[in-house]
Design a protein that fits this description.
Chain lengths: ~475, ~425
């Protein structure tokens, strides 16, 4: 199930909210757990068993770790963590990366195993990381073991962040699971946040997506430099609104149920360096890799050589986490290299440049990065990259590129504006937060966004049959 | 201040609950429709719950389609979406350009066409034309291609919009045909009148005025005079026509007018599909239902074969091989031919050869197609025709004749069918 659907908005969510608030407090986690499983099973009627399995594994591992630690048996605790990691990563490896590994092995002569073509269970990259974070946090003493299976299940499967994050570390919500307080303020914030996210996804991302699909389908002979950059920029904006929109919806939904999740995006396209960018984009993923891979490996505390290696490992993994294909590995390493360069000397240089130049540099790197990231979606990825850098066959611009730009001009303009904090700053100045004026203005605006979003969702299924054409 | 703020928030929550909850409940309880007039298709109904369908995910997909199709106020939502797109200064919606002066112009992309099918159609048409040349002679066979709106109304397109379609196909037909001067692309003739109302704003067809200019080109091809456009008595049969293009993109625009160009030679007898329907006029005002069916004014519904008998007394009989574009064109021919036999490839139950045999008085042939539809047509195999067929009078009695066997069997069955 997806949030941006009529099913979620007008069937699932109303029913779950109703049941949740009618139920006594002690049943609420159970309702969330059950509803979340239903939410997941709707899209994955078979793989829902996998997530249940993962939940049971880590619940058990958590209890085991706590038990061993209490008994002073470090080794036992470590073993439990190891088991949890192996099983979780194993599942991830099989379901997501099996065919990729096989294609790599294929290059070894005389070895050939046919690809197994398993469909990827939705959200597996997110929930396995979440469950692993629990076991490790319990081991480290950062979080208390959760003895209630239902409560733990609610944490793992929580439908707001199950499908697309943010990756919620257990210790962030440990207390909230048992003793959160829903409130009028939180609920209102939740509604507004959710509607904002829905608007980002449906009104901006989906529309930008139409343009992106058109350009990515072009072959080399129609890819002008203008079209290629238009495509890369459109995709950069689309991905931002899609992903951050989803995070907004997740955070908003969390608030409706009394949870406060951490922010996942903070106007990343305003960054003045790549280092800063990765502190503002998909924050929960960066945090996860830092906490559970980078720092355990030694971070930058074991000499420059080891530090570069750590960066390579973390970024290689970050890349491949995004997808089982070489373009993602290349993309990850691309950033690893740039981050290393920035840490070594470029970062300092950037702080001494005027802000606008630093931002242009960052955006150039980021947009090019997203072009690499989306090679799989392009009909002609080589042609595309060539066109971006002036080596394409089709020239700088043509009628079609101009038409596409004009057709989507307003949407692109609104998107660029929406990706900056300008609107937010302006709003804060004219309508200070926590005033009645501000609340009412936000509410009116968001309801308009919501209604327009619903119209877009209905139109998706509009399919007139024009028999004259047959 | 704080409690006031809290009150506002509480009110908002109540509003939200009523809005979303109310809409959900209403959508759940409201009566479900089985068919959509707006979309001209059946709407999804509540799917059955079976274990298999849930595990495979097909129940979920169908249910979501059902929710969408049956959502309360669906038509209003779709219109609202179109308005929103206009507001965002989009130049096209659902594959339709929002042109100047309220013109809705369908766009085509290369992906809409199949080169293999195009090649096959070119071959079938060229073979038919050549066979017709053989039977009737060069001067009695014509082929007119009507361009689509997007190719002619170039000035009405949004800035930088354009489409590369159809140019090649007519050239390809000309290459394969014995007398290429008899194959005419009406684009040049119509472009001269680009600024006039020659295509409907909301439909993909040409207007009666556009058909008149097509008729003018046809007369010129055959060295005949064309009556002045003012010599026709014009009647606006409908002024509330919202056609197929409007159906694709519900953008508020001016309705179209469907005109009749009255002539002195309008007294005709029309027979559709050998008795299925008949009339004494080209114009079926009652058949043209409100909405996008107004074009059905001309000859009413799409029919496989229509015979038009006129009072022209010219001794000529015309076979028209057509799609729907010819419907408003044929009335112009009522003074030139005693009999006009209209065959629509998509709906005819018999092949051209059989029909031709049935009406040996045919003296002329006209093929009139819209070029875009021609590129996508999948029914042109009915055009398979060899001149020798017309001489096979005694098909049933003839003993085995190599390749003609299949054809003779078909003709035999056709003869059976045409017996009442």
């Amino acid at each position: 199930m997806v949030f941006s659907s009529l099913l979620f908005l007008f069937r699932f969510l109303p029913v779950v909210l109703l049941l949740y608030y009618l139920a006594p407090r002690r049943l609420r986690n159970f309702i969330l757990f059950a509803a979340s499983l239903f939410f997941y099973a709707w899209g994955e009627p078979v793989y829902v068993l996998l997530i249940l399995f993962s939940t049971m594994v880590d619940y058990t591992a958590g209890r085991a770790v706590a038990h061993f630690k209490e008994a002073g048996r470090e080794k036992g605790a470590k073993l439990a963590v190891l088991c949890s990691a192996v099983i979780n990563l194993g599942a991830l490896g099989v379901f997501k990366y099996a065919d990729f590994f096989l294609s790599v092995i294929d290059h070894v002569p005389a070895v050939h195993i046919a690809p197994i073509h398993l469909t990827l269970p939705i959200g597996i990259s997110f929930y396995t990381f979440q469950t692993m974070s629990y076991t490790i946090d319990v081991y480290r003493g950062d979080a208390r073991v959760q003895k209630n299976f239902i409560t733990f299940g609610a944490y793992v499967a929580l439908f707001p962040q199950l499908i697309a994050g943010p990756i919620v570390r257990y210790k962030t919500v440990a207390e909230q699971l048992d003793s959160r307080k829903e409130s009028v303020e939180l609920f209102t914030q939740g509604i507004l946040r959710f509607m904002a996210g829905l608007g980002k996804k449906v009104l901006l991302a989906n529309q930008l997506g139409e343009l992106q699909k058109t350009i990515f389908a072009m072959q080399a002979d129609s890819l002008t430099m203008m079209a290629a950059w238009l495509g890369a920029i459109t995709f950069s904006l689309q991905l931002y609104f899609d992903f951050s929109g989803y995070s907004d919806m997740a955070i908003g939904l969390g608030k409706m149920f009394g949870f406060e999740f951490l922010e996942n995006f903070h106007y990343p396209y305003e960054s003045k360096s790549i280092t800063e960018f990765w502190r503002r984009w998909h924050i929960s993923l960066g945090t996860w890799f830092r906490e559970y891979v980078y720092i355990p490996l030694g971070g930058n505390r074991k000499g420059t050589g080891r530090w570069i290696l750590n960066i390579a490992v973390v970024w290689g993994l970050t890349g491949i986490w995004h997808g089982a294909a070489w373009c993602f590995v290349i993309w990850g390493i691309y950033y690893g290299v740039l981050l290393a360069i920035e840490k070594l000397f470029l970062g300092n240089l950037l702080t001494r440049l005027p802000g606008i130049l630093a931002r242009i540099y960052t955006l150039f790197i980021v947009v090019t990065g997203w072009a690499i990231f989306s090679w799989l979606d392009m009909a002609d990825s080589i042609g595309f990259m060539k066109a971006m850098f002036g080596l394409g066959k089709a020239g700088i611009a043509d009628r079609e590129s101009m038409y596409l730009f004009l057709n989507y001009g307003v949407i692109l303009g609104a998107s660029v504006l929406g990706a900056t904090s300008l609107v937010s700053s302006l709003a804060n100045r004219c309508l200070p937060e926590n005033t009645v004026r501000r609340e009412i203005a936000s509410m009116v605006f968001m309801v308009a966004v919501f209604v327009t979003s619903v119209a877009c969702l209905v139109n998706l299924s509009y399919n007139p049959f024009l028999y004259f054409r047959f | 201040m704080d409690t006031y703020l809290k009150k506002v928030r509480v009110l908002f929550i109540i509003f939200f609950v009523l809005l979303v909850g109310g809409f959900s409940i209403w959508s759940f309880l409201s009566p479900k429709k089985a068919y959509s007039d707006m979309e001209n298709r059946k709407l999804e109904t509540l799917p059955k719950v079976t274990g298999k369908s849930i595990v495979s995910g097909s129940f979920q997909k169908k249910y979501e389609a059902y929710l969408s199709d049956q959502i309360f106020l669906r038509e209003n939502w779709v219109r609202f979406y179109a308005q929103m797109q206009c507001f965002l200064q989009k130049k096209e919606i659902n594959g339709v350009y929002l042109g100047k002066e309220g013109y809705l112009i369908e766009k085509y992309e290369e992906s809409d066409f199949d080169k293999g099918l195009e090649k096959a159609n070119t071959g079938l048409l060229a073979d038919f034309l050549n066979a017709s040349f053989q039977v009737l002679g060069e001067d009695h066979v014509s082929c007119l291609f009507v361009p689509s709106k997007v190719e002619v109304l170039k000035e009405k397109l949004p800035a930088y919009a354009g489409t590369d379609s159809g140019e090649g196909i007519i050239e390809q037909v000309k290459k394969k045909v014995l007398h290429e001067n008899r194959v005419v692309d009406l684009k040049a003739a119509l472009s001269e009148h680009e600024k006039e109302y020659i295509y409907y704003r909301t439909d993909h067809h040409w207007t009666t005025l556009g058909a008149y200019y097509g008729f003018q080109a046809y007369q010129k091809l055959n060295g005949e005079r064309t009556p002045e456009v003012h010599s026709y008595q014009r009647e606006t049969a409908f002024d509330d026509f919202f056609g197929t293009t409007y159906n694709k993109a519900h953008v508020r625009t001016k309705a179209d007018e469907v005109d009749i160009f009255h002539t002195d030679s309008e007294a005709v007898r029309i027979d559709g599909n050998d008795g299925e329907f008949s009339s004494e006029s080209f114009y079926f005002k009652n058949a043209a239902k409100k909405g996008f069916d107004r074009y059905a004014l001309f000859f009413s519904k799409n029919t496989g074969k229509i015979i038009v008998d006129t009072e022209a007394h010219t001794g000529k009989t015309l076979l028209v091989v057509k799609d729907s574009f010819a419907n408003c064109f044929v009335p112009f021919l009522s003074a030139s031919y005693d009999r006009i036999i209209m065959v629509d490839c998509r709906y005819t139950k018999t092949r051209i050869g059989s029909i031709w045999k049935e009406y040996p008085e045919i003296t002329d042939v006209l093929v009139l197609f819209n070029d875009t539809k021609f590129r996508q047509d999948t029914h042109l195999s009915v055009l398979k025709f060899r001149p020798e067929e017309l001489e096979q009078e005694k098909t049933e009695e003839k003993p085995e004749e190599s390749e003609d066997d299949d054809d003779s069997e078909e003709d035999f069955l056709d003869d059976l069918i045409s017996l009442d």
